[in-house]
Q: What sequence folds into this?
């Protein structure tokens, strides 16, 4: 009888579970005689079904232990790749102890991979095999890890310090849990740490913590993607009626795109959404939508995300797309129950009613949740191909892109986008801050991105070659950034900028930044005591200059109208000149452009 067929009563189960650590348990782990249940599922009538046992070389975890994005293979830990028997026993003992720390399956896989990398290196040399884990051999392994590289987008690069630290942590885990095994002789670095050995300390660590690793999707990619995918949502009824496979897949991918883009969810959270799993409420004439799903990373149980209406439309479309698969699932569930296939019943119940059901062609059309890897590695890049872009689009990029757009919207830059998504304002971050059911980590991401965006803007103000215009605040900054003695006190211009800018509030008026810490009703922010205009506002001022030039060409605006247009022209010219623009050259370019446009019409 295989492990996945073994059904135990509660009493039998309790006696066969892998026992708590003791001297005898450790001795059996060392000599390879340790047995017991490692993973299981609970079935009807208080009975349990074993999925894997300690003595097996493949440990199978139930679907509930992974995220909705975890593939079936991602729920397995495979020890067969470790050839040496003693090393395999050590790997099992480390992983089993890590399991008790409630690590996710994906984290356990990383632990096993890093142990395997180390053991393969050990076996490559008779010397290291003979000596075992010592400070001397550990130092040699550090040098080896420093030679490792990774390939991204066809470019070979050395491993970053954080990745090196994870690989070196495997040696500390071996010492912590396996010091009684013959192989482990001494601590790998008694007065140091894996992080220090990897250079993941001090400034390098601080920089890694502050600097986002995830790219923001650029506008030249994002805008065409929005246009392309929105066209599929608009044609949803037509595509669903035709049932054309390629179009249906693109419709599904477009829905997932909009859920990723407008909510800040992780991919496994989107894959965990069930049909109709959203609600709405109206506050101050604004309707807010809340999507319910499960976050395996930061929540136990259900959580909610604020979303615009288009996200709920995407959920409804995905629900309609998955309806035939849901009907098949319900038929399969009846069959599984009739045949007492408890494992299949458990699996089907875990995925029932989800909006991202799919068929696995490799497994006799078995139903499952769409793979997160499939979305990131195949489906999202395919969307880029549709718009003829070579951007390497990935699911995790959407979360930071979402945060970045929200922050810009709160600062007032993206007024049209703010109007479109309604809740993208300070109101939204307030809702995240005071609602325990919402994704707290996403709120932290918003605050982190807000800090990064504001710091970038303010750092530019203090750069000597960065032109700024405005009232008293702008003039004070110009004076400070030219004061060499001030810079010496702070050590660098960057440190001085941080010190000064940390106390400067900032929000956008559309054509300038306002640094007033109270509500400002000034309509001339470029002359206001609190106003600052920088290079980010150039397009707005050029646009206003174009408008005034067009007004000046009209014959029916009268003297008062012409005087107002002239005053507007002078206002624009003053700001643009302060920002380093040759206004006369700009006017010539505008006239040429307008002439070409009129000619084309």
A:
């Amino acid at each position: 009888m295989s492990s996945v067929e073994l059904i135990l009563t509660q009493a039998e189960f309790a006696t066969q579970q892998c026992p708590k650590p003791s001297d005898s348990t450790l001795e059996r782990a060392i000599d390879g005689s340790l047995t017991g249940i490692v993973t299981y599922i609970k079935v009807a009538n208080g009975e349990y079904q074993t999925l894997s046992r300690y003595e097996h070389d493949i440990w199978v975890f139930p679907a509930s232990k992974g995220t909705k994005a975890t593939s079936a293979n991602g729920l397995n830990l495979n020890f067969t790749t470790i050839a040496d028997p003693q090393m395999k026993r050590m790997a099992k003992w480390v992983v089993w102890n890590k399991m008790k720390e409630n690590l996710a399956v994906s984290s356990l896989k990383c632990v096993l991979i890093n142990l395997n990398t180390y053991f393969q290196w050990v076996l490559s040399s008779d010397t290291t095999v003979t000596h075992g884990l010592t400070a001397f051999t550990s130092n040699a392994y550090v040098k080896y890890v420093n030679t490792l590289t990774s390939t991204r987008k066809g470019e070979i690069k050395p491993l970053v310090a954080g990745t090196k630290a994870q690989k070196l942590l495997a040696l500390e885990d071996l010492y912590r849990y396996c010091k009684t095994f013959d192989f482990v002789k001494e601590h790998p670095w008694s007065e140091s740490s894996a992080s220090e050995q990897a250079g993941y300390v001090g400034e390098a660590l601080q920089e890694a913590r502050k600097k986002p690793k995830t790219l923001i999707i650029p506008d030249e990619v994002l805008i065409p993607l929005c246009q392309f995918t929105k066209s599929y949502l608009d044609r949803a009824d037509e595509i669903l009626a035709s049932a054309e496979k390629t179009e249906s897949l693109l419709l599904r991918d477009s829905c997932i795109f909009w859920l990723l883009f407008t909510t800040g969810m992780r991919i496994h959270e989107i894959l965990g959404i069930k049909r109709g799993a959203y609600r709405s409420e109206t506050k101050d004439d604004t309707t807010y939508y809340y999507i319910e799903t499960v976050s395996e990373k930061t929540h136990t149980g259900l959580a909610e995300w604020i979303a615009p209406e288009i996200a709920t439309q995407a959920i409804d479309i995905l629900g309609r797309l998955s309806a035939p698969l849901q009907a098949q699932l319900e038929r399969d569930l009846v069959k599984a129950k009739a045949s007492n296939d408890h494992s299949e019943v458990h699996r089907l119940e875990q995925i029932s009613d989800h909006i991202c059901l799919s068929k696995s062609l490799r497994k006799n059309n078995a139903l499952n949740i769409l793979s997160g890897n499939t979305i990131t590695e195949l489906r999202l890049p395919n969307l880029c191909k549709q718009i003829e872009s070579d951007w390497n689009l990935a699911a995790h990029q959407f979360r930071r892109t979402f945060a970045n757009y929200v922050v810009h919207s709160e600062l007032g830059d993206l007024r049209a986008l703010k109007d479109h998504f309604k809740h993208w304002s300070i109101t939204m971050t307030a809702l995240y801050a005071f609602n325990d059911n919402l994704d707290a980590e996403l709120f932290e991401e918003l605050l982190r991105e807000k800090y990064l965006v504001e710091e970038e803007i303010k750092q530019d103000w203090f750069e000597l070659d960065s032109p700024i215009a405005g009232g008293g605040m702008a003039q004070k900054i110009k004076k400070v950034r030219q004061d060499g003695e001030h810079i010496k006190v702070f050590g660098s211009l960057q440190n001085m900028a941080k010190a000064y800018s940390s106390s400067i509030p900032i929000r956008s008026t559309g054509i300038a930044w306002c640094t007033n810490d109270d509500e400002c009703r000034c309509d001339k922010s470029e002359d206001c005591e609190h106003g600052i205009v920088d290079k980010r506002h150039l397009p707005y001022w050029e646009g206003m200059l174009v408008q005034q030039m067009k007004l000046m060409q009209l014959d029916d605006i009268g003297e008062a109208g012409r005087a107002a247009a002239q005053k507007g022209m002078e206002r624009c010219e003053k700001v643009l000149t302060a920002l380093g623009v040759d206004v006369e050259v700009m006017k010539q370019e505008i006239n040429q452009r307008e002439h070409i446009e009129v000619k084309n019409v």
